[in-house]
Amino acid sequence: MSTASPTGTPAPGQLTFVAPRRAKPARHLADLTMAERRAAVVELGEKPFRADQLSKHYFDKLNGDPATMTDLPAAAREKLGTALFPTLLTPVRELTSDGGTTRKTLWRLFDGALVESVLMRYTDRTTMCVSSQAGCGMNCPFCATGQAGLTRNMSTAEIVEQVVAGARALAAGEVPGGPGRVSNVVFMGMGEPLANYKAVIGAVRRLVEPSPSGLGISARGVTVSTVGLVPAIGKLADEGLPVTLALSLHAPDDELRDTLVPINTRWKVSEVLAAAWDYAAKTKRRVSIEYALIKDINDQEWRADLLGKLVRNKLVHVNLIPLNPTPGSKWTASRPEDERAFVRRLEYHGIPVTVRDTRGREIDGACGQLAAAE
Ligand code: SAH
Question: Which SMART domains does this chain map to (predicted)?
Answer without folding.
Answer: Elp3
